[in-house]
User: Fold Peptide/nickel transport system ATP-binding protein from Kribbella shirazensis.
Amino acid sequence: MSALEKSPETEAAAATPLMTLDGVSQVFDTKAGPIRAVDNIDLSVNPGEVLCLVGESGSGKTTAARMAAGLARPTSGQVGFDGTDIWSMNRNDFGTFRRSVQYVHQDPYASLNPTRTILQTMIAPLLKHGVVKNKKAAVVRATELLTKVDLTPPETYLSKFPHQLSGGQRQRVAVARALTLDPKLIIADESTSMLDVSIRISVLAMLGRLRDDLGVGFLFITHDLAIAKYFGWHGKTAVMYLGRIVEFGPTPKIINAPTHPYTRALIDAIPEPDPDLTKTKGRESLRSLEIPSLAHLPSGCTFHPRCPLFEDGLCDGKVPELMEIRPGQSAACHVVARDGVPEKRPDEPGA
Ligand SMILES: Nc1ncnc2c1ncn2[C@@H]1O[C@H](COP(=O)(O)OP(=O)(O)OP(=O)(O)O)[C@@H](O)[C@H]1O
Assistant:
């Protein structure tokens, strides 16, 4: 067998998703009553794959990600890792799972201990989990990882405290720390959204290199489809709205040929002059800009009060299921499922 051919074992392993969310929901009890932050979603990430989770603030991305990381237990549904339900794992297996999934938060300042130097932050997990034999080896590994995230020369950073670094440098340290335990999945939750644009681009480029070099799976969370396009072009994208997935498919299809009116509206809202994105722009004008409260969700399709395709009696009656609209691409929309994707408007570019 040549090196490029896959053995049956490798093929079988590739077929087992790394992480699965299966009918997962999260309901929070609040003063306003119970709110369904995540409502019956199915998602999976294969080994080495990028899945982007996109949606406006409050759509449930972080809640879904916390469940995927085992940081919160779903109210219903199953979270699987390497084919096993994480909440039925024994203590040991759960520990291994938690080390295999590393979470990189939006705000590195909040996630790094301000009283620890970068060296202390980096070597603590290496020593605690026995990744290396002794402190000397831990320092060597910490130095290698800082180099991997472009903090060079690494020695300059080891003795510093988080407050002595810039936002971009702190986020690089957070990524280096996430790599200490050789994760199989990195959950990057708006990891670049607090950074200035030029720094954001360089941190994204660094993450992209790690994605390509390490073969780690990514659950990449962003409110910005342009960033999903940049980071997840070879992967898949799920679009969330008020706790549900409204569109799912390969990222190029979501960007270049969105089918759900909400995805189309998100693309319309992107201000930057991206030639791929502007091709798909100009299609929808929303009936309302107001996002309904999770405590008082509209009946039927929760997007119906804003949706340009709204049909009385159809859209406000029943919750739409995700249906395959085109091969590999599904959307939860009664009208698109019945009629297909609407034609371009006459004034639309390319019409
Ligand atoms: N612990 C909690 N208790 C009550 N409500 C919560 C809790 N955590 C999240 N929520 C609510 O659940 C909804 C979804 O929040 P979530 O943070 O998952 O959304 P998001 O898409 O990640 O948004 P953002 O980008 O603003 O973080 C929001 O209305 C939020 O206020």
